[in-house]
Amino acid sequence: MLARRVSSTQSTASAAVAEDVGPNVLGFLSRQQLPATPQNYALGFLIVTNSEGLAARAVDAVLMNGDRLTSDDVGRILAAHGPKEEEKGESEDHAKVRRHTLRLAELAATAVEETGEFGRALEAEQTLLAGTVAIAELVATMIERSTRTETQLAKAAKQIEDLRQEVETAKGDAHNDSLTGLHNRRGVLARLQGMTPDQRPLLAICDIDRFKTVNDRYGHVVGDRVLKLVAASIKESCGQNFLARWGGEEFLVIFNGAVTPDEAFTILNRAREDLANRKVKLRATDQPLGLLSFSAGIARFGEKSLDQAIAAADALLYQAKENGRNQVLVED
């Protein structure tokens, strides 16, 4: 019963707020001699519920000149500052960037407004400078308004820097695989843009052996753990060579500089052996997971396109699977 009473009280309070908003919106429309159409009501609702928002500021800019709002004004203000359909369902990162952008607009508008007031004050007082006005008071007013403007601009600069950093972070995240922390396909393409053929002599595709069986038998939680473990193991063995998650249980290696086919084979074969020697157990039961291994194909890259090099490496990978898995093959 207590829970019901609390719910009833909250409902009554919400209804009271709604009852206050409705008459205030209609009062606003009446003062502006606007009919209570859905569009006009939407703007009135924004003004009543957020008197410091951008829509309210835009309305103030019209009313300051002694004018009333027109239907054209309403449409223009809603288009610029009303809720947008595309905002529904947006990602958390996009919402964060959007909030920062709106905050920047508010700060910029405030700074401009303060600067405008400062100019108008000078215009109003300039005829009195030769009269009896207290110069000290005028100067104090000028300094106060100038300080406020400077503070607002400093805040705007800080917001701009925060926004820049968030955009850079979002850009970096777009190049990374969220599960393994490795670069993804987009990250691979970004990496290749700055590489010349002699900087990318060889490419390899690695594929975890019998990974579907792991997922089917133990579930995707264990499967994700295996993917993270394999990624970390290969990365440790490959050192400074570029490693990315190419998709699913496949990993791509781009070897650096003057690495020869024999050296590339040594690196990946060591990675294969290191992984196979790991004793992996299920966390819940302490049961051994069994052999973890991968097969790989190493192909020449250099002057080839990415698609050509991957096709060659894939053919070798398929051959390694056909030969019994848990092995590395190199293009002649």
Automatic annotation (TrEMBL):
Question: Which keywords does UniProt give here?
Answer: Coiled coil, Nucleotidyltransferase, Transferase
What name has this protein been given in UniProt?
Answer: diguanylate cyclase
Organism this protein belongs to: Sphingomonas natans
Keyword presence, Nucleotidyltransferase: yes
Which SUPFAM superfamilies does this UniProt record tie to the protein?
Nucleotide cyclase
E.C. number(s) listed in UniProt: 2.7.7.65
Q: Which InterPro entries match?
A: Diguanylate_Cyclase, GGDEF_dom, Nucleotide_cyclase, Rev_trsase/Diguanyl_cyclase
EC category name? transferase
